[in-house]
Specification:
Layout (H helix, E strand, L loop, with lengths): L1 H4 L1 H23 L5 H10 L4 H25 L3 E5 L23 H11 L5 H7 E4 L20 E6 L10 H20 L18 H18 L1 H6 L12 H26 L5 H35 L9 E5 L5 E5 L3 H34 L5 H36 L4 E5 L4 H35 L4 H12 L3
Antiparallel strand pairs: 1-3, 1-6, 2-3, 4-5
Helix pairs in contact: 2-14, 3-14, 4-14, 5-6, 5-7, 8-10, 8-13, 10-13, 11-12
């Protein structure tokens, strides 16, 4: 097939030779070309017009067939990136997109390995090229608004790759598959967070199990809002769930189901090891008390600093200002005391939360210390943990299904790959142009042939001179 791809270059080379011959003959006989002689020579080529037309038609058919066959055998591959971030020059995970990764050494090595190709990555790189529709444009990078980012990339494999016992289309198919897999693995949305594991629950304290399950549920709840912001009403076929409804279900699981489980455990004072758990709570409370005192000390320092401010210094100033909607309002400026007040409030809120956590730990230790729970209650608690695990796994499966469907339908698999069909109109125009040049070269040589023959015969030692010499030798003395 590579020979077919060489037909058009061979024809162009032949045209170059024909025109070289034509120009050589023209410069040789141009001094002997009277206008009437040229017209007469044109008249003498009337009988050769059919031959010229036949040769021209044959040249056109061969040239067109060779171009179409080469385009079918070695098509150009178009890669279109269909996700929203592509227009901003980013990958789906908002990292910077780099088109050179398409033909990177690692990708090419995987292509060679998967296809069992008999060439090196360097040799394959020499056969591949990539371009964009914007390459031909002159971009003015002096202004950011003029910058353009392409989401379409044309990849072409040279015909010489067949010397390595493969063909261009096979190489491009392998490249598309390998790059897509690497792209999804490295740059697409990472949904591995939806893979929940409960191995650490084995032997965990009953109250700690609630915290662990809450942590797993929060992983799901924090993952869904990103998709919900993109398409709040998206639903999978045959399923009425949306990202918002699933997120609400997970919130209900945390706020209702897990709270019920915790209340059950606290009410009955369940613990795997009563003494160890009480000691843990005492140690945790000592650390929390230290943190609480730090927060309160920071709060008191800021209150003291506020009290040191002079009343005149704490006055505020109203400044005429326009908001984002171009509406006028009076903006209040902040002074140092305002920042101290905000920080004092934050430290007080942190200390309050620490106190609540300490009270919870003390209550849990007290309940566990006074508990005489039966085996049936422990069995019931274990059953509740299994039920909570099953419900959470079901929510994770629904989340994965909805996210996968969204990625497939809305982002169209991230990348669309297609092969450009043969550009028949362009091939026809190119063939017509080459045919016109071919016919013109043949016609020109036909016109100059009589004059060139006359020139050759007139040269000393030419055919005419040789014939006269032979006649003189054969004449009687």
């Amino acid at each position: 097939m590579i020979l077919v791809c060489a037909i058009v270059p061979a024809l162009i080379l032949g045209l170059a030779v024909l025109y070289a011959v034509l120009l050589r003959r023209f410069f040789i006989v141009k001094a002997k070309l009277p206008v009437l002689g040229v017209r007469g020579a044109l008249g003498r080529t009337a009988g050769k017009r059919r031959k010229l037309a036949a040769l021209g038609a044959l040249f056109f058919v061969v040239c067109l067939a060779a171009q179409v066959a080469a385009a079918i055998w070695a098509p150009e591959m178009l890669m279109v990136f269909n996700y929203e971030e592509a227009a901003r020059g980013q990958n789906p995970n908002v990292t910077r997109f780099n088109e050179s990764n398409i033909l990177s050494e690692g990708i090419l090595e995987q292509v060679i390995q998967r296809g069992g190709l008999e060439l090196s990555a360097e040799q394959l790189s020499g056969c591949l090229s990539i371009s964009t529709p914007l390459d031909a444009e002159k971009l003015d990078v002096s202004q950011e608004s003029d910058l353009k980012i392409s989401t379409e990339y044309h990849v072409r494999c040279a015909e010489r790759v067949s010397l390595y016992h493969t063909d261009p289309k096979t190489v491009l198919n392998l490249l598309a598959d390998v790059y897509w897999e690497n792209f999804v693995q490295n740059y697409a949305e990472n949904d591995s967070i939806l893979d929940l594991s409960f191995d650490k629950l084995e032997g965990m304290e009953y109250l700690d199990a609630k915290d662990y399950l809450e942590m797993q549920a929060n992983k799901l709840r924090n993952y869904l809002p990103g998709y919900s912001a993109e398409s709040s009403s998206f639903r999978a076929e045959g399923n009425e769930e949306t990202f918002a409804s699933l997120s609400q279900k997970i919130s209900n699981f945390i706020d209702i189901e897990l709270e019920r489980y915790e209340a059950f455990v606290l009410e009955n004072g369940l613990a795997g090891n009563r003494t160890t758990y009480q000691s843990r709570m005492q140690y945790a409370n000592r650390r929390l008390d230290v943190s609480k005192r730090k927060e309160m000390a920071a709060h008191d320092v800021r209150i003291e600093a506020i009290n040191m401010y002079n009343a005149y210094m704490t006055r505020f100033v109203l400044i005429p200002t326009y908001d984002t909607n171009k509406e006028f309002y009076m903006s209040k400026t902040k002074v140092g005391v305002d920042y101290f007040a905000d920080e004092a409030k934050e430290h007080l809120e942190s200390a309050t939360k620490l106190v609540e956590e300490m009270e919870h730990n003390s209550y849990a230790a007290q309940q566990i210390g006074a508990s005489y729970a039966s085996t049936a209650l422990y069995t019931q608690a274990d059953q509740r943990i299994e039920a909570l695990k099953a419900e959470l796994l079901n929510l994770a499966a629904q989340s994965r299904e909805l996210c996968s469907t969204y990625v497939k339908e809305k982002r169209d698999g991230y990348i669309q790959v297609s092969f450009a069909p043969p550009a028949v109109p362009e091939s026809v125009l190119k063939s017509l142009a080459l045919t016109a040049l071919f016919v013109a070269a043949l016609g020109g040589n036909a016109v100059l042939a009589p004059f060139y023959q006359e020139y050759r015969n007139s040269r000393p030692g030419g055919r005419k001179g040789k014939r006269e010499e032979i006649l003189r030798e054969e004449a009687p003395a």
